[in-house]
Write a structure and sequence with these properties.
Low-confidence stretches: none
Largest sheet: 2 strands, antiparallel
Helix content: 40-55%
Number of helices: 3
Structural class: alpha+beta
Distance between the termini: 48 Å
Number of strands: 4
Shape: elongated
Order of helices and strands: EEHEEHH
Mean pLDDT: 87
Strand content: 15-25%
Strand order of the largest sheet: 1-2
């Protein structure tokens, strides 16, 4: 999906209006937080917190590597 958005004045700031199709793809709505990160190709907008995703990836790796220990501790 490609979308074109226009920068609009909002008080003393600027903002963009996201089409509802784009919001649906992001699974986001009014009041939700979006995260913007820089990539080699430009910027990335996501509804998922990249820092949290990185922490969860580390946690999943630990759980895979140490599952036997975790199973014993869970008893």
């Amino acid at each position: 999906m490609n979308a074109v958005v226009k920068i609009t004045r909002i008080g003393n700031s600027a903002g963009v209006v996201l089409p509802k199709e784009l919001l649906a793809k992001l699974r986001a709505g009014v009041g939700d937080t979006l995260y913007v990160s820089e990539t080699p190709d430009g910027v990335r907008i996501t509804a998922n917190n990249p820092a949290f995703e990185a922490q969860m990836a580390i946690a999943e790796q630990i759980m895979r590597e140490d599952r036997d220990i975790l199973r014993v501790l869970a008893k």
